[in-house]
């Protein structure tokens, strides 16, 4: 790893795609690229952004196939909308300290769009956008074991 880099490439665990039709997107990725999918998960999540705290209904499916993809259902009026001209929405990274990594990225010109603040005041996840036109999602590494169920093979698929 470049010693000056903020994030380690080995910590990237998925590439996020936001779409208005997740089923069709996943089906296309299966038929064209051979991807297989884990379970679809979702729930209402409280996020904090520049304009305050909001509850957003998020839903996604991760691929069983690697390199791992995440297909996210679009949520109008939020950062979870398809990026015009690109299918790429974000690069997802595990983080040992989301708050510190967010601060480091902000020092390098990245804008914090939304994050989930835990009761201890630290960030559990954060979405940051850069001038290059894509986002980085930082996720607390402690979620890795629980999230692994999202990309476990599903019987009968």
Structure at a glance:
This protein is α+β, with helices and mostly antiparallel strands and 157 residues long. The chain has helices at residues 22-33, 98-107, 144-147; strands spanning 12-19, 37-49, 52-63, 69-73, 90-95, 111-117, 123-129, 135-140.
Describe the structure.
The chain is 17% helix and 41% strand. By secondary structure, it is of the alpha+beta class. It has an 8-stranded mixed β-sheet with strand order 2-3-4-1-5-8-7-6, covered by helices on one side. Strand 7 (123-129) and strand 8 form a beta hairpin. 27% of the residues are buried.
The proportion of residues in beta strands is 35-45%
Please trace the helix and strand order, writing H or E for each element: EHEEEEHEEEH
Q: How many helices does DSSP assign? A: 3
Could you tell me how far the N terminus lies from the C terminus, measured between alpha carbons in angstroms? 37 Å
């Amino acid at each position: 790893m470049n010693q000056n880099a903020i994030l380690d490439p080995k910590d990237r665990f998925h590439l996020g795609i936001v779409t208005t039709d997740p089923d069709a997107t996943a089906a296309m990725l299966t038929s064209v690229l051979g991807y297989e999918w884990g379970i679809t998960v979702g729930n209402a999540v409280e996020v904090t952004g520049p304009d305050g705290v909001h509850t957003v209904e998020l839903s996604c499916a991760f691929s069983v196939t690697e390199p791992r993809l995440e297909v996210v259902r679009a949520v109008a009026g939020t950062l979870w909308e398809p990026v015009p001209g690109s299918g790429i929405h974000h690069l997802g990274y595990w983080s040992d300290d989301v708050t510190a990594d967010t601060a480091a990225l902000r020092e390098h010109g990245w804008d914090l769009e939304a994050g989930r603040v835990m009761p201890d005041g630290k960030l559990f996840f954060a979405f940051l956008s850069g001038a290059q036109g894509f986002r980085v999602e930082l996720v607390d590494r402690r979620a890795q074991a629980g999230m692994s169920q999202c990309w476990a093979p599903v019987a009968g698929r």
